[in-house]
Amino acid sequence: MAVKERVGMVVSDKMQKTVVVAVENRAPHPKYGKIVVQTRRYKAHDEDNQCKVGDRVRIQETRPLSKTKRWQVKEVLSK
User: Fold this and answer.
1) What is the pLDDT, as a whole number, of residue 48?
2) Can you give the residue ranges of every domain in the chain?
3) In DSSP terms, which residues pair with 57 in a beta bridge?
4) Closest CA to 70 of 49, 48, 40
5) What is the CATH number of domain 5-78?
6) Spatial separation of the C-alpha atoms in residues 15 and 53, rounded to whole Å
7) By C-alpha distance, which of 19, 14, 8 is closest to 72?
């Protein structure tokens, strides 16, 4: 089974070893055709606290690490 990966922007780094990553999905509306932006926020594990707000990161699905944390930061794409 393929491992799920997402690319998004860090919107919060206030927690210890955890960042909140916002992932945008742009898709046309089924009826009207307008491009609609849907944002989904994932809590991701950041072991070294290296991510800062505004960083573009790749996250990867992992086993449950806490009540709401199911992703981990794989790499920082841009600062």
Assistant:
1) 93
2) 5-78
3) 8, 76
4) 40
5) 2.40.50.140
6) 12
7) 19
Nearest Cα to 53, choosing from 9, 22, 7, 6? 9
> How many of the other CB atoms lie within 10 Å of CB of 75?
10
Q: Per residue in 15-71, pLDDT tens?
A: 999 999 999 999 999 999 999 999 999 999 999 999 999 999 999 999 999 999 999
pLDDT band per the 50, 70, 90 thresholds, residue 14 = very high
What tokens were used for 68?
């709401």
Q: What is the pLDDT of residue 1?
A: 78
Dig out the tokens for 36 from the structure: 């609609």
Question: How much helix, strand and coil, in percent to the nearest 5, is found in the chain?
Answer: 0, 60, 40
Model pTM?
Answer: 0.90
CA distance 70 to 36: 26
